[in-house]
Amino acid sequence: MRRVRTRATVRVTVVTGAGQGLGAAIAGALADAGHHVGVLDRDGDAARQVAARLPSAVALCADTTDEAAIEAALDALGATPTVAVCNAGIVRFGPLLELAERDWRAVVDVNLTGTFLTARAVARRMGDRGGSIVAVTSMNGVAPGPNAGGYGATKAAVGLLVEQMAIEWGPLGIRVNAVAPGLIDAGMSAPIYTDPEFRELRASKVPLGRLGTADDVAAVVRFLTSDEAAYVSGQTLLVDGE
Ligand SMILES: NC(=O)c1ccc[n+]([C@@H]2O[C@H](COP(=O)([O-])OP(=O)(O)OC[C@H]3O[C@@H](n4cnc5c(N)ncnc54)[C@H](O)[C@@H]3O)[C@@H](O)[C@H]2O)c1
Question: Which atom of ligand 1 is nearest to the CA of 114?
Answer without folding.
Answer: 31
